[in-house]
Design brief:
alpha+beta, 4-stranded antiparallel β-sheet, 9 helices, Alpha-Beta Plaits, 5-stranded antiparallel β-sheet
């Protein structure tokens, strides 16, 4: 275990909670301080932590940082890397991005206050992973940007222009209808095959950088010994539908099913999920 010294100008950033473990983490894993994460054990639980500067992670500056997408992305990727390393040797319960405590006593209070939930989560998640599935609706001929795209050929008449616009809208609506129907059927099928399923809000295309509009953004909890069958089922189930794209992500530590000491909000939030999926 790393020696975690208290310092008045630093806080303890908590990545995840696990059972105590003796296996070394993979070489090269680094926390937000550029060092291997420290471990604080308390009454049968263990918190993975790093020292971070209070000037960045106190409430005021932290609120400002969370509006900075570059900072948020870097922090989310490091958060995910630490949890992914933990998942190779134990069953981590990921905490919300930017969970911080004043000192080691604060970490122990965090473990005590969430003890029942942490223990239940570890028992429920041990030997399981998370797969993510997204469905996108992508029109073949999206409405052009007036600034970047070349001008469209001028319609012969106002009626021709309206007819063309109506055709574009009907095509887009049909793609959305197909994507929605596939999303409902696929989610129902995968929920039957997984131990649990969770729907997240659709991702913002501007943040994710993915083409098309996100229609389904779902996560599924799957036992490790059934993971290959689950992935195969996705590939077998998905038909080829023009304008609709399905994306499988993972496997991840089971972020979406972790819960935490704040009544279910202990999992990594959506910004962190998007950050790690852009790696």
């Amino acid at each position: 275990m790393n020696d975690v010294r208290e310092h008045e100008h630093e806080l303890l950033y908590v990545y995840a909670v696990t059972r105590p473990f003796a296996t070394a983490l993979p070489d090269g894993v680094r926390g937000l301080d550029g060092k291997p994460p420290g471990l604080i054990e308390h009454r049968g639980l263990c918190a993975a932590v790093s020292r971070v500067p209070a000037e960045d992670f106190n409430a005021g500056p932290l609120r400002a940082h969370l509006e900075d997408l570059d900072w948020l992305g870097r922090t989310a990727r490091t958060h995910e890397a630490v949890i992914a390393a933990l998942a190779t040797v134990t069953c981590p319960v990921p905490l919300r991005l930017a969970t911080v405590c004043r000192d080691e006593n604060g970490v122990r209070r965090l473990l005590d206050s969430g003890r029942a939930r942490f223990v239940r989560a570890i028992e429920r998640l041990d030997g399981r992973i998370e797969w993510g599935v997204k469905v996108y609706a992508q029109a073949q001929q999206p409405f052009p940007s007036r600034e970047l795209d070349p001008p469209e050929p001028k319609a012969a008449t106002g009626r021709d222009y309206l007819r063309r616009r109506l055709g574009e809208r009907q095509s887009r609506d049909e793609i959305w209808r197909r994507a929605g129907a596939l999303s409902r059927a696929l989610h129902a099928e995968l929920c039957d095959r997984a131990e649990a399923g969770r729907l997240h809000r659709p991702q913002n295309a501007r943040l994710s950088g993915e083409p098309g509009e996100n229609v389904l953004n779902a996560a599924y909890l799957v036992p490790l010994d059934r993971s290959e069958d689950f992935v195969a089922a996705i590939r077998d189930f998905i038909p080829h539908i023009e304008g609709v794209r399905v994306e499988l992500t993972g496997p991840w530590a089971p972020y979406s099913f972790a819960g935490g000491p704040d009544d279910g909000h202990g999992q990594v939030d959506q910004a962190s999920r998007e950050g790690r999926e852009e790696q």
